[in-house]
Design a protein that fits this description.
The protein is of the alpha/beta class and about 325 residues long. It contains 17 helices and 12 strands. Helix 7 packs across helix 8.
Length: about 325
């Protein structure tokens, strides 16, 4: 595993290696910038070339530079969004689509993020300048593009359908669940886009995948779980059900198989290790509260089955766990 220096050590080393102007530029522009911005600051190309050669800067795309340690630590979706932002500065007329539009909206995906921004030409004919750093889809627009933070993107409903035309089922549904839950679009608008894209590559599978949208899912992991349940023949549970006993509210659970008296909880370990979720509380206290909560659910006649990310990545583990708990099969 690559050794990552502590941030303070990196800052000291970078401060010694960078010219004052380049150091100021990075601080001002959040550790990334375009060639045009560097030129505006009066920083010559030779300075940028030396910084890349010494490993201080990375050039992931022509005309775009990022501090190397920041680029390495960024999640793939963050990297993709930065590439889109940089390209939009150079070519503001481009309309970003597919996963590039998703990155701009903050719509999550479970599939791999590609290294090239994706744009739509707005027509079927292949015309215009070819860009090696861009993936162009030669398709007509089915709705007006929108301006989001200075970038032209396909509307959310179109973006969801485009993702479903190319992505895996679990990724497509996770993206759609998120967009609907956060009111970026709705099921009616998505169905209208499916109709208007009749005949396009992948539209049949998109139509199938997107029948499973449920905006009640609160995370991509819950969406992924639901699709795995479907694909492996389990009954689809109700979502986000609240339970009460004589002392009041007990819990709101991710999944509920009412007839079987079983509730399902995804990613139960997160609440014990994530600082944002802990919110300053002692993990031991959270664990004790969780045990009391489960005891109260058990007194209501409910059995709890839990799974985590590792179970989704190895579905055989999840299937064994669900079978052992007695989760019902679909008829």
């Amino acid at each position: 595993m690559e050794h990552i220096e502590p941030r303070i050590t990196q800052e000291l080393r970078l401060g010694a290696d960078l010219t004052p102007d380049l150091h100021s530029l990075l601080q001002t522009h959040k550790d990334r910038f375009t060639t045009a911005t560097a030129a505006h600051w009066g920083i010559p190309h030779a300075t940028l070339h030396r910084a890349v050669k010494r490993g201080i800067l990375t050039r992931p795309m022509r005309g775009f530079y990022v501090r190397t340690d920041v680029w390495r630590e960024a999640f793939p979706e963050q990297r993709h969004q930065w590439l889109v932002e940089a390209l939009a500065q150079r070519a503001p007329h481009l309309i970003f689509a597919y996963e590039s539009a998703a990155a701009v909206y903050g719509i999550p995906r479970l599939d791999k993020w590609h290294s090239r921004p994706q744009v739509i030409s707005g027509c079927r004919t292949k015309r215009g300048t070819h860009r090696a750093s861009v993936k162009t889809f030669h398709e007509p627009l089915v709705a007006e593009s929108l301006q989001v933070r200075g970038m032209r993107v396909t509307d959310p409903a179109t973006t969801i359908v485009d993702l479903a035309r190319r992505d895996s089922m679990w990724s497509a549904v996770a993206s759609a669940d998120h967009a609907v839950r956060h009111k970026m679009t709705d099921v009616d608008a998505i169905n209208e886009r499916i109709k208007s894209m009749s005949g396009r590559t992948g539209i049949a599978r998109a139509r199938t995948y997107l029948t499973h949208i449920d905006g009640r899912a609160e995370s991509v992991g819950e969406s992924w779980s639901r699709i795995l349940l479907l694909l492996h023949g389990f009954e689809i549970p109700d979502l986000q059900q609240s339970f009460h006993d004589e002392d009041g509210f007990v819990a709101r659970c991710d999944f509920h198989w009412e007839d079987a008296g079983i509730i399902g909880e995804f990613d139960g370990l997160k609440k014990y290790v994530d600082p944002a979720t802990l919110n300053g509380r002692d993990p031991r206290k959270v664990l004790a509260e969780e045990k009391m909560r489960e005891d109260r659910l058990r007194q209501l006649g409910l059995q709890t089955v839990r799974w985590i990310w590792a179970d989704l990545k190895d579905p055989t583990r999840l299937i064994r766990r669900l079978k052992k708990a007695g989760v019902p099969r679909s008829q």
